[in-house]
Design a protein that fits this description.
The chain is α/β, with parallel strands linked by helices. The chain contains twelve helices and 20 strands. The chain has a four-stranded mixed sheet with strand order 18-19-1-20. A four-stranded mixed sheet has the order 2-11-13-12. The longest helix is centred in the first third of the chain and has 13 residues. It is globular, with a radius of gyration of 21 Å.
């Protein structure tokens, strides 16, 4: 199925954003390690969170997490320290996503994990037990979810964990988010050197916890407002905090350079509030940015900058090749259909110098089973009426109400075979 999108001339809408997937998934695992007595409030209703909820509640012998990469990493570590034997599996694409670095790290501290199929990739057979812990090294240049998975189980280890991150550390805000949540639940965890995190053996304490809404989801509304031609358009987003530890909260600073102003209803840093987005008549001559700490926003900014005529050079994209799809190749292919030639000028780098090509006659954006491809390209309907999005249901992975929210903003969405 495909959706055919037609955008309104003007946007004036209040959007109740989904709860943060990143925070929800961490809260669920930490809560389970604390005994599972207190369910976090305002949990995300996305696919990735639902599979973790189901796995933790039912704990079947075979746990199928579908396409949820976060669930694969977090549940691998959780099952390694939890008594019982389980097979952890997922979609065909999940079976192509590497997990060797995490498995090697867990095995080093005593975990019993076997590969069911191809070495280095899911499915995994995990026999959980109490692990000793100790000192461990892992590359800081791999997915931060590997690191967060190790950190979250570290308080349960007999000797705790001293984790040294080697090389460049990517997605550091997500590691800091994990540490902040661990400390909230009573863990003794901190950076003890520029590249060392120490977690001492200290049990989690069950606590009530409220999950703020998702800054990653907010990014698509920034993009829509930026591309909307009516300068009086306005978007209001609920449940965000000014002091958020979500890495993608940087979207408010980046889009301020592209002409979108962010106004908080209250400036209390940890109180969820409504954020109002307004257009400003400005844009930079070009945008160069290192997305090492915000890799999930790359698709949004590639589309937004190209359509706004802002040349760019985006670096820090190495992790994009092992996401739901190879996002670097997917972006180059799909943005070309809109008439923009984006080039991979170096490993982990995408650039656009203004080069154009002919548009596709009938523009159908392939989503590659990647929710962020669908949501990042949907605002392009502002400039390309009748733009089609293939397999639009993929948004359920992180933002199930995305299309309903677009309709409430005035988009016309029709189904096509």
């Amino acid at each position: 199925m495909k959706y055919i999108l037609k955008a309104p001339e003007r946007i004036d809408v209040t959007v109740d954003l989904p709860a943060s997937k990143s925070i929800s998934n961490r809260a669920l695992v930490i809560n389970a390690l604390a005994g599972g007595g207190v369910t976090p409030d305002n949990l995300s209703d996305c696919d990735d969170t639902e599979v973790i909820i189901s796995a933790l509640r039912l704990m079947p012998e075979v746990i199928d997490i579908g396409a949820a990469g976060t669930a694969m990493r977090f549940m691998t570590a959780y099952l390694a320290v939890t008594p019982g034997s389980h097979v952890l599996t997922g979609t065909e694409r999940m079976k192509q996503r590497p997990i060797k670095a995490l498995v090697d790290a867990l095995r080093y501290i005593g975990a019993a994990i076997e590969y069911v199929g191809t070495e280095g990739y899911p499915p995994l057979r995990i026999s959980g037990k109490r692990l000793e812990g100790g000192r461990l090294e892992i590359s800081g240049g791999i997915s931060s979810q590997y690191i967060s998975a190790l950190l979250m189980v570290a308080p349960t280890l007999e000797r705790g964990l001293e984790l040294r991150l080697t090389g460049e550390i990517i997605s550091r805000p997500y590691i800091d988010l994990t540490l902040c949540m661990m400390r909230y639940f009573g863990a003794d965890a901190e950076w003890t050197d520029v590249d060392v995190i120490t977690v001492r053996p200290k049990a989690y304490e069950p606590k009530k916890f409220f999950i703020e809404n998702d800054w990653s989801a907010a990014s698509y509304w920034y993009e829509m407002l930026m591309l909307c031609r009516d300068g009086e358009s306005e978007v209001r987003l609920t449940g965000l905090t000014d002091g958020s530890r979500q890495g993608d909260s940087a979207v408010k600073y980046l889009f301020s350079m592209l002409g979108v102003k962010t106004l908080f209803k209250t400036r209390e840093r940890d109180v969820p509030t409504t954020v109002t987005l307004k257009r400003m008549d400005m844009k930079p001559p070009r945008l160069d940015y290192d997305f090492t700490n915000q890799p999930d926003m790359v698709q949004t900014f590639v589309v937004a900058c190209a359509l706004a005529g802002v040349p760019f050079r985006f670096t820090g994209l190495s992790s994009l090749k092992i996401k739901e799809t190879d996002r670097v190749e997917a972006l180059k292919t799909e943005i070309r259909k809109l008439g923009y030639v984006v080039r991979e000028t170096a490993v982990g780098e995408l650039s656009w110098d203004g080069e154009r090509c002919d548009c596709a006659g009938d523009i159908v954006i392939k989503t590659y089973e990647d929710h962020r491809m669908a949501m990042a390209f949907a605002p392009a309907a502002m400039a390309f009426p009748g733009l089609k999005i293939d397999n639009p249901q993929v948004v359920s992975k992180s933002y199930p109400r995305f299309w309903d929210d677009l309709r409430s903003a005035g988009f016309t969405i029709e189904e096509a075979v």
